[in-house]
Each structure stands twice: as structure tokens, then as C-alpha cells.
Amino acid sequence: MAFPTNEVIERMVEPVARTYGMDIEKIRTVKAGKKSQVVIALDSDEHPTLDDLEEVSKELSTLFDDAEERGEVSFGAGYTLELTTPGVDLPLTEARHFRRNRGRKVKVGGEQWRVGPLDAEENKVALVRATKKGEEVRVSPVSELSGAVVEIEFNAPPAAEMELADRAFEDLDAAATVRKENK
């Protein structure tokens, strides 16, 4: 049996992650001589704690070992399983990524915005920023923002931007529509 592909690992991990209310954000494998490495990034709306990841890790280790014993997969001479969270370098590609990063600064097409709320269907997201001229609101389909990345901030974010990011989607969408009509 060959070393499992990321797709095979994802099929194995997905039911366990779902049980804990987590999503698989990334799987990376490194096939090495004596010890291969399987790194799985998990996230949830509540952001998993180290204790949460340890609990899932124990369950996945048992699952992987049992599957290997049955001959369904082979990790070679051995493997190290590492569970982590995605970190800020993960591009925002799904609605859940924007929902989980509400209030954070992101870079979209060379411009910096702050993530606001999503619409009820989670198809559109409001991006906001405060400028010297006032508030700016951009409402975009999530599907058009797949290159967005979180920007690390070392200072407290401006209160005006955080207030904007905390507003309801409908309020921000109406403000963006009025600005478009006035241009």
C-alpha cells in the first residue's frame, strides 16, 4: 500500500474534524526516510485551543494506526502527526475565512481594508476603512476576493474602523449603494 494522498487523508480526517466542529484548512505531507510527517491545519469559529487539538490528534493517531494495521494506508516506517491552526498566511478563500477574521485588516488587490460582516447567505462580505474623508465601504462577492490575506497589525486598530466592522451587513451594504449612486 502506498503513502496516502492528501485527498485520502482528508477523507479520513473530515468526519473527526466535523465531530469537533472544525474545518480542515490545509493538509501537508512530507515523505521522509524513517519518519514521515503529516501536518493538518484545523480551524473553527471558536478557534481551537491546544487542548482541543491534542484531543483530535489522539483520535486521529488511533484512526491512522488502525487504518495502517488493516492495510488501508501505509505511512512507511513511521510518521509524526502535527495538528495546527492555519495562521495568518492562509489566503482567505471561503466565506468562513472572512467570518473568522472579522475586524482584521486584510490586503485585497494591493489595498488595505478591514473585514466587516457577511450577508445572511455568506455570499458577500463588507470591507471597510476609515479615511480622512470619512468612511469607505466596499461590498464584494466572497468569490472575487480569493487573493485576500490578513495583514499583521502591531498597534491597536483605529476605533472608527472597528465600529464600522461591527455594524450590520445591511447598514454597510446600504451605505455602499448610496456612495455608488452619488458618484
Automatic annotation (TrEMBL):
Q: Which Pfam families match?
A: RimP_N
Q: Does the keyword Cytoplasm apply?
A: yes
Sorted alphabetically, the keyword list is: Cytoplasm, Ribosome biogenesis
Q: What would be one Gene Ontology cellular-component term for the protein?
A: cytosol
Keyword Calcium found = no
Q: Name one GO biological process term.
A: translation
Give the location in the cell. Answer: Cytoplasm
State where it is primarily located.
Answer: cytoplasm
| Domain of life the protein comes from | Bacteria
Report which residue ranges the record marks as coiled coil.
none
State the Gene3D superfamilies in the record: RimP-like superfamily, N-terminal
Which intervals hold domain Ribosome maturation factor RimP N-terminal? 12-89
The UniProt family comment states:
Belongs to the RimP family.
The record's function comment reads: Required for maturation of 30S ribosomal subunits.
In Swiss-Prot or TrEMBL terms, this protein is called: Ribosome maturation factor RimP
The organism named in the record is Corynebacterium haemomassiliense
Name of encoding gene: rimP
